[in-house]
Structure formats: C-alpha cells, structure tokens
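Example 5.3 — Taurine catabolism dioxygenase
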Amino acid sequence: MTLTPLSPHIGARLDGLSLNALTDDEFTQLYQAFLEYKVLVVPKQQLTPAEHLKFGKRFGELEPPHPFFPHVVGYPQIVVIETAPGNPPGESFWHTDMTFQSAPPKCSILHAQHLPDQGGDTLWCNMGAVLESLPSSLREQLTGQQACHQLHAFAGSRYDHTTPEGESVVTQKSRDFPPVHHPLIAQHPETGEHSLFINEQFTRHIDGLSDTDSQALLDELFQLARQPEFQMRHTWQVGDIVIWDNRITQHYAVTDYGDAPRKLHRVTVQGQRTLAVTAS
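Solution (predicted structure tokens):
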C-alpha cells in the first residue's frame, strides 16, 4: 500500500490495493488513512455491485435506498448517478450528503463506471480546516447554535415531479423527512475534531435569527467552503473509488460536460446524530 497526500488539508491517494481482497490489517490501515485525510482515492478498482456493497459494510451499516436517486437493478442500496444524452445533470451545490436526516451518513463510496472525455471533476472541502480559519469571535458566536436542514433543494429538480394526486414528490417525501436541526459546530465522533457543519444544499436557516440575518451569515460561511486552499479536486478515471468522511467534508460535482454520458455508483454508510460542540 502506497499513500500519497493530495493537498495540504484534505485527500490522499492509495495505490497497490485491491478493495475486494483486503486483509483485516490492510483495512485497518485504510480506515486510519480515511480518518486522517477525510477523502481517499483508490484507483483501478474492478468491483461488482455485490463486492461494492460488501466493501461498504466494512465501514458500518448501509443506508436504506435513497428517497430520490435511482439505483442499480437488484441492488437498491447502490445509487446510480448518471448523465445521458437528453438528461444533463441538474444544478450543483456544495453539500454534505443527506443532512436532511436526523443522523446524516458516516461516509460514501463512489465508483466510476463510465465518464465523459472531458470534465466531470469532483471537489471536496475539509470543513474542519474551514472552522479553524474563522476569527475566534465568530467561532464563539456559532458555538452552541443550531441550523435547520431540509429537502428543499430537490424541489423543481429533475428528481421532482407531480404525482397523480397533483402533489410534488418533494412535498410528499418531506413528510417522511421533516426538518431537522444540527449544530453549526460539530464534533467528529471518532477523532474529536471540530468542524463547521453547514452546506448550501440542505441548510435552510440558522435558529433564532431573522431570515435576513440568517441568510447573510450563511452566505458568509458558505463562501468559506469555496476557498481552494481547503479543497482537493479529483479528475476521475474509470475504476476509481473515492471514499469520503461525510461528517467533516463537503463536496461539489462540476457539471461542465453537458449531457455527455457519465455514470457512477455510490454506496452510503449510516452515521449517527451530529455531536454538538458546547462553549468551554
């Protein structure tokens, strides 16, 4: 196993591994690298759907089928992220996966199936490093505060449509996933690291603030995640596996390839309620 860091704050590449034949010792090393670097790129992996699921289960219990995304036939826990002629990607947001849940996922494992000739990179951001960059006065202001997370970003997207009863699918699903509240500053349950736990796609409102003040503060914080010094960027190759720690990262899919064919499979691992950081 060869490990190569990819940026100062986030990401590493692991070479010399076959993920469908890892020994327990190799998985332990991989898992420690996952916690340290937040995002791991493992190239040239040939995993069947069954092997993809088996590997994912080494990280924990898997998420049930996604409320909107399609899945691999016969494998409802493997999401298909696909673009095809006439079906371009929708609007992209910086986001942490599924924070509209009371217990957002622990991690995701994405496997590249086929790719456009150009474009389609993905970026990840270390939200722990973002938090560390904040002035101490702003960190104190955010400590102990919560924000509301919702499904609202799916409204009007390609995953939304009107049911025969005349109701939006997103409105319908929102009854299964009512608004949840997560701390603005969260503590990682395994490493103890603190991070800024917000994202453009699902964070709706900071509790206790007016709409105007909440949006102004969120916009200020969202902008920090767009700073390249906290990020890594991955240019996909067929067979790449990328594993990321959803508890301390955000990511962004660059949709610069029109409707050129692109397909990736994603397995997502269940997490736990977000741990709040309290004032010292």
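Remark. The radius of gyration is 19 Å.
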